Amino acid sequence: MALTVTAAPAVPAVREEAPTRGWTHRWQVLPLIATVLFVALPGDGAGAGTVFGVPAADLLSGVAVLVCAGLLLHRRRRPLSPAAAVVLGLPAVGLALATVTAADPVAALPGFVRYLQIFVLVPAAVLLLVRDAQGFRTVAGTLVLLAVVEGATGVHQYVTGSGASYMGEDIRAVGTFGPGDVMGMATVVGYGLVAATAYALRAPAGTPRRLRPWAPVTAALLVVPLTLSFSRGAWIATAAGALAVIALTGLRQAVRALAVLGAAGVVLVGGFGVGSEMISQRLTSITEVTSAPDRSVNDRYTMWAAAADMWREHPATGVGLKGFPAHRDGHASIGLSAGSDTAGAGQEFRKQPLLSPHNMYLLVLSEQGIIGFTALVGSWAALLAGGVRRLMLARARGAAAVDCGLAAVGLMTWQTVDFLYADIGGPSTVLTGIVLGLAAWWALDRPERTAGP
């Protein structure tokens, strides 16, 4: 009689639940995918990419936050670990303090909402909606797809002379972002290149052999539109992000990757002459910051000095969110120009006012003081340090999701370096929240979710 006892009826229940869970996990990242892809729509305030003047990508990021909130209410469980809650929630404290202490709290309120969206809500939504390594790869792969689309548009602009104005010619690759946001395409392409580099060096487990060459080919091709963006800050940030990825893969593979990158650079710039003269001039201008800086460099350093002076006057809480433009003229020298000249890519000549120091760290310091700076920059430092630590542990244990760690650390490195030369603003800003969320997923999420196949 004992031989007739069996536990077989329990098996079908497990098989029935697995597809539902898998579909649920993939459905959850759809708002994130849509947010990334909709960044490509022109968002000049009147185009198809806006709704009541708000970029569609920003609205979709709000949808992602609402979906995340709905799932949390449905599941009724603690959403974040204590460490994640502190790292992602701490910036909100500094933002709130800078808002209530501003000379005009009502005027500072839009800045509070924007910062809260980019640095708190969207990263938290990404952390919670990305359930496994496959979800991470899907979102990161969407960044690469967006980079390819924008990069192809930018190369077409350079070849046909339909880009933004640069040195008297309409050749600057700006993608769909227009001459008013010359950093937009460079940012998108930089993200895509770093992510593609990570997957080129460490292909995800189970990738078919015939698909493995696509990552290195994509990374190499994205060098072209990045170069044609003529964006010095994006060049430096992308080099830093790619080098971080290469260095963290191991010495032997790093040497091979650097050799390939060097050869690709010689072929693209030296062999084919892709904008070689203008690129050379642009590279040279990076070091000519004291002897003979161009006007854009002079304006940038003037605004940096103005931001530092604002902080010295209000060291604890700064001048308040959105306060830099109002205080700029009282702290900037007479050497600051009236604005930046923009034209081309379907736009008439315009004088674009200089409303930020083009350095995120100095912008935060001047508007939020040392309290907000410590909270926000400390959060970014925790994400980067935590990501590197977990990546080293994952490599030592031979975890399958090392490719996700490489992409997360590379993207976070790109962002922290780029903030030395840029700040938030424009349609591509929402991608900053996506990148911070991916870094948070790797650095702060539970080990069993980041160690998947």
UniProtKB/TrEMBL annotation:
Keywords on record: Ligase, Membrane, Transmembrane, Transmembrane helix
Domain (O-antigen ligase-related) ranges: 218-376
Membrane topology: Multi-pass membrane protein
Pfam families to which the protein is assigned, alphabetical: Wzy_C
UniProt subcellular location: Membrane
Claim: Transmembrane helix is one of the keywords in the record: yes
Main location: membrane
One MF annotation (Gene Ontology) recorded for this entry: ligase activity
Transmembrane residue ranges: 52-73, 80-100, 112-130, 139-159, 182-201, 213-228, 234-251, 258-275, 360-384, 396-414, 420-444
Name of the protein: O-antigen ligase family protein
Native source organism of the sequence: Streptomyces glycanivorans
Lineage: Bacteria, Bacillati, Actinomycetota, Actinomycetes, Kitasatosporales
